[in-house]
């Protein structure tokens, strides 16, 4: 049992959380690129001296759960060579426990009276890090060497002295160096702010008290996690989900798991998942673990602290060389879609044990369109993480206009896109008759149309999913609908794959239309109250035909 006053521990927990959130807000306000500043595809965390996460910023859970593995790589590489004024940079999945190459870590140690006491950590998805596809989400890459600039953990600053060579190498290898350099500086600003705030906390409470509370917070999170798991029904729950596959002739990629609840522990085994593929959807094991932690943390009823202690009660195993535990040189530029599917598969397994705590299947994470080209001799790259629609739950209809739980991100505002890039958003709204029918209806699809306005030819690449394997319903709820991806040129419509392995040329006036997947329903549609069906009809979410056919409205 803890000998620390619980009120004091709660105060300190919130202080740690406030530092991580301050870093997140600082990074958002200082960032240059839309994918960081507007989509908020980044993460921040405060770690203890051992690299264990103490607090997570209000950003992307699928990033944050892998920080511990990255910190272990960094600390082993630089054991005995970590000093005040150092700033570390890295991104490689295989030598730095990175996630994919666009996600670059900036990490800074915090010293107090010559002693290493904590770390500030930031991770941001950069607009471009080179490679064969602008935006560096190369679905068609066959090995990681094609995906862009690879960085082991290096000292960007060594005891306060900048390593100019690293800055120059980065600038020469990316298409939009101003944005990449600007976002790196934003990460450093956030890191410095976190270090300053942590030392202010130490000045108020004393280093011994702060470190004692940090240690106790991990133990407290572990105790809460174990108590939650003890309330769950023991057993092994299986689920299999799929990625549709790559390119024009896709072959399904299997995500298979067995989730075992035994007393106060949970183990998740991915045996049976597909071997790693020659395409950018492979997932390094730290990202797989982070996705598992995200799903489990979301069904906990207690306010379990978002720190490493919770992760102690969960074991994740996956065969090496599979799509969920890739090994060098497997490409992983678009590994995010696999992480989303891991969370969806976790929910499929958890639904068997906890039907009232999970949603039916949703849109499956973000669609990522990327437009790139040259305007007036200068390169531009625009990517966004477009989401989001959820499946229904036992308590309410599927939500729309919210992110997937794996990534607390946002769609870039239309005005920001049109002001900064040769693009026009022609349409953005809800699509009628798309949410899966049920006692509670799945969230509807939304449509977003991009018109290319560039005077010179550009390119467009795309990551989406769930056309062949539709979002499933739960307990009698109907499936949702799949995505629609269409390129319109001179009035002729061409249906695109869900995972585009070769970018498409974009000429002035071309239009890309994306309709997202919709959410699955929960419970039989015949049990939906008539008043709610009429409300959906009046709101334009469903047509009269669907009201009659699926819900029996007279």
Walk me through this protein's architecture.
The chain is of the alpha+beta class and 554 residues long. The chain is 30% helix and 22% strand. It contains 13 helices and 20 strands. It has helices spanning 6-30, 34-37, 61-64, 67-77, 164-173, 177-205, 207-230, 285-298, 308-311, 336-353, 414-420, 530-539, 544-549, and strands at residues 42-48, 53-56, 87-90, 103-112, 115-125, 154-158, 161-162, 235-243, 253-262, 265-269, 314-317, 368-375, 378-383, 423-430, 446-452, 458-463, 484-489, 492-495, 504-506, 511-515. The strands form four sheets. The chain has a seven-stranded antiparallel beta sheet. Helix 1 (6-30) packs across helix 7, helix 5 packs across helix 6 and helix 6 (177-205) packs across helix 7 (207-230). The longest helix is centred in the middle third of the chain and has 29 residues, at 177-205. The protein is globular and about 75 Å long. The N and C termini lie far apart (62 Å). The mean pLDDT is 95.
